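[09:14] KT: can someone run the structure on this one? pasting the chain below
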Amino acid sequence: MKHELVKSILNRDKLALSRAISTVENRLAGYGEMLDILYPHGGRAYRIGITGPPGAGKSTLVDQITSRILNLGKKVGIIAVDPTSPFSGGALLGDRVRMGGLAGREGVFIRSMATRGSLGGLAVATKDVSVLLDAFGMDYIMMETIGVGQIELDIADACDTTVVVLVPESGDSIQAMKAGLMEIADVIAVNKADRQGATQLSQELQFTFQLRKRQSDWCYPILLTEAVSGRGADELWQAICSHRDYLERSGDFEVHRRRQIKSRVKELLEARIRSHLEKELHLDDLLDGKADKVFKREMSPSQAADEIFKHIREYGA
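[09:31] RB: done, structure tokens below
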């Protein structure tokens, strides 16, 4: 089945793409080989991440940006990460509902994905799904995080340009700084700019970014937007294009991509090592025994870790 899917994806069959994404999401047999075969066919798509607190208007901004990309005759794949349904385990599809106006347009593919326990703001399979969309021939891949607030930093490892969306109320500037969102932002959109406090938030962010500007040639845009009306959407799209131009002109694009690849390989390697150890060394049983000793104060957590590591080294020898 995987070879048929590969052929159909390369022939731009959207139904096959949907089936392939489900195969990857559910980790069905052959999904890894399918990704391996498709990987050399990608590398052209530009990846844009949209992140920020819940209710900031991220989905509506994705809709606005995507419309502008489609108007240029380009193809867009959208990965909208939604909360996991407590009943089915799947995505609640809220983002797809909010982007319903795009569904019928040629050149766009929207997929809602459940977090399924991931704490980084993206679904576990997001990076793998981006490989499928890239091989399918998408010019742009947009990833919208779930909007969990203070832990969605995975987006910087998955995208080329990261847009952080904030709103005037709820002390978003302070929360964003606490969360480290400002460390991953390439472009900042203060959405719902018709509300009181938008200008003040923008000024606070300008001050915050003075230090970052000294460490980079990139001048971080802080834009006022109203996603529902479309105000500021043109400027936001232009800022994303400008950041892409900056990355390619400065040589940072290749550096950034290589760093992401190294991080991804390391991530997959760690997962394989962990799985191997758990299977071959019965790691859970070993942990239970050491945890019991730590609970009884017969050893410290550090000593327990040292003994387990010694056991692993002896196994490897």
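[09:33] KT: thanks! The radius of gyration is 22 Å.
[09:34] RB: yep, looked fine to me
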